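TL;DR need C-alpha cells for one chain.
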Amino acid sequence: MDYDFLSINLPYGFQKTSKNEWAPFNRQHLPLGSFSFALNGKEWACMIYKGLTDAFIDEIAFSIKHDESGGIIKFYLYSDESDLQLSVKAYNDYFNKLKLLGKLKLIIGK
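>> reply
TL;DR here they are.
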C-alpha cells in the first residue's frame, strides 16, 4: 500500500481518552504527537485542547461517533473516500478545519 505525506503526518481524526483528553490520529489510525500514553493496548498522544467543545466539533467534523450516553468519543475531519490531493475542494475544506484547530490552545496531558 502506498502512503503519502498527508495520510501519515496530519490528523484524520481525534479519539477521546478515558481522561477526557483528545488523541489525534492519522489516516491509518496511528497516533500523532510526541507525548504518549496507553489506550486499548496502543500508545496515543495525550492532549487537552482548550475550546474543543461539542459545538466546535460539530462545526469541523465530517463524521462523529458517540458513546451510549450521547457524548462524543471520536470524530473525523474528512471522509475515507476523500482524496485530498485530487480534490481542490476537499483539500481546502480540510485545511480550513486545520486553521480553526490551530487557533486552539494546547496543554500536554499528564
